[in-house]
Design brief:
This protein is α/β, with parallel strands linked by helices. 37% of the residues lie in helices and 12% in strands. It has a four-stranded parallel β-sheet with strand order 1-4-2-3. Helix 1 runs antiparallel to helix 2. The longest helix is centred in the middle third of the chain and has 14 residues. The radius of gyration is 14 Å and the shape is globular.
Amino acid sequence: MTVSVVRLGSPRSRDEGLRIGTVRRPPRGVPKAKFASENWYDVWLPELSPGEATVKLGQKAETEAQWKAFAKRYAKEMASPTASRVLELLAALSHGADFSVGCYCEDESRCHRSVLRRLLKERGAKLA
């Protein structure tokens, strides 16, 4: 039983389980009825996505210092009571169920999901 961190829209791995979209907005041009069948996500959880201003900060990050500023700001958002409780829940569920969390970005190292991976690990999540 584990949580995987994935790119939404990519082919699913065999044991991936439920796919959770941790993105601010649904995929553009995709009918809601096709989100799961086209490997976007089964459940949308925007509470774990960066806020709009934080997303823009991350998208504009060109230097390591700018990326670290984004990561720090996103981590601070995830320290809010609601987000923190959701992260704790997912960490606990990872010990009894297979599921995945993800975003659209091609490069995980420059995506909020790299920070999300770290935050889940810090809470004791069992990661794939």
